[in-house]
Amino acid sequence: MSDAGPIGVFDSGVGGLTVWQEIAARLPHESTIYVADQAHCPYGPRPAGEIAAFSTEISRFLVENRCKLIVVACNTASAAALYSLRQKFNAPFVGLEPAVKPAAQATKTGHIGVLATAGTFRGALFQHTAQTCARRATIHRQIAPGLVPLVEAGQFDGPQTGQRLRQYLEPMLAAQVDQLVLGCTHYPFLIPAIEKITGHQMTILNPAEAVARRVQRLLQNRQLAAPPHARPARRFYSAGDAAAMRVLLSKMKVAAEVERLFWRAGRLVRQKDGPIP
Predict the structure, then answer these.
(1) Among 8, 132, 143, 235, which residue has the fewest nearby CB atoms (within 10 Å)?
(2) 41 included as an active-site residue
(3) All structural domains of the chain
């Protein structure tokens, strides 16, 4: 066992905290660094090359801060950059892709739904999985614009959130979808609102737990796991609205400071005077 450094986790915003939460629960002795690129959120509508550039710079920041493993806690960034990140950096990367395969295996109606961004649907990871599973089930794809900004604003439930969710989910209910794949790490914050609409008609698939298990296996296999007596340090950074991120962490009952990062000529730099007040 070796306390080789923290686990790095990044996302376009606060959505990746759903993944971070599972990692922290499964690996309570591991230190973590979380980066939210809220300055450029949402990633979904952006070109793949731009997302890859952001992901590269964030990964460089995490590597420079001794991260022993990096989780790309964003389906869109995984689709756009995961392969290139593994080529550029000497660190293991764990990415995300929509859980289409387990949904196709579990469906009883033969219809599965996927809520995701346009960037995720364009990515090779989703395309390959969808083609592989196409014989097992009909895949109902739904780009869900507007949900990420609502989550970033802390609007997990309410009239506007409910209206958008009904717009996306009611056609799936009519098509007898019984497995709903959440293809964005922001969407698990909306599970209670989703269940108000779908009731017991859909099983909701959240990939965060599977990602945490994958991280645990990689650390064990590479002998990078922190010892059981380690005291974890948990650092959070935002390249945007750090105050909003701190409010969300408090809702998750995580006591933490959030430091600001700034983009300067395509590079991430820390605020010199430390955490924001």
Answers:
(1) 132
(2) no
(3) 7-96+209-270 (3.40.50.1860), 100-206 (3.40.50.1860)
